[in-house]
Amino acid sequence: xxxxxxxxxxxxxxxxxxxxxxxxxxxxxxxxxxxxxxxxxxxxxxxxxxxxxxxxxxxxxxxxxxxxxxxxxxxxxxxxxxxxxxxxxxxxxxxxxxxxxxxxxxxxxxxxxxxxxxxxxxxxxxxxxxxxxxxxxxxxxxxxxxxxxxxxxxxxxxxxxxxxxxxxxxxxxxxxxxxxxxxxxxxxxxxxxxxxxxxxxxxxxxxxxxxxxxxxxxxxxxxxxxxxxxxxxxxxxxxxxxxxxxxxxxxxxxxxxxxxxxxxxxxxxxxxxxxxxxxxxxxxxxxxxxxxxxxxxxxxxxxxxxxxxxxxxxx
Length: 315
Prior knowledge:
Layout: H1 3-13, H2 22-43, H3 49-79, H4 85-88, H5 95-118, H6 120-129, H7 133-139, H8 145-155, H9 160-168, H10 171-178, H11 185-212, E1 238-244, E2 247-253, H12 256-268, E3 279-280, E4 290-291
Antiparallel strand pairs: 1-2, 3-4
């Protein structure tokens, strides 16, 4: 898993599309904030049932918008389309989707807090293991919120340290955004989320077959290689063409560097058949390629009559 290449791939996918996130992000941040502020203004700073209801409502709306934002970024990256404002509000079309989004937000928050009660490190590890939950919820609507969290934990198994480094790599940008009064977030938020989509795709190629089974994993082919629909040479395994005896075989390599090496090897290979009918494989002389002895025609050649005219010159 190459974090730098995953992030560069995300930036490439966002090329020319970042401006389309400005209005949705304003709505995403503004709506829950307004609901919370109204609760403060209407019911004061003291605890009350009505104020608690408004606070929960703000959280409920925020979680629903978060699911919509994740869908917007995911569709933008995977389908190559411009950000669609309708995706931001798509979960409001169904009560089940709204409840689903709220429960995912609530459960991941509670689980993280419970782990934090033990030690900070277990809480951080738990947070890393939940990073794919929202995308699993979008790809697998048949799963319950708790099942989505469980599948995310399975999917990230063995890669939590890399995920931690991935999250940590955005820390400098987050600090820098404080000096821009948050304006940098309009560029940073799509960048972070697009990178998370690419990270999710990578995890699905690496671990998805184990977690969901190959038949339920749209990110891999039957042989476990990255599928053409979500193929990303920068973030997942790479399928390379290896030319052998005039046919194309596909093999999986674990990194872009290996892919380049494989392509170079294929281009410089002498195993491909050539036009000369006397050239063929001969393992006894050279394991790679050798020249076989020419076949001699046993038919005797008639002697040349020196007195006969030469047909070459027509004389």
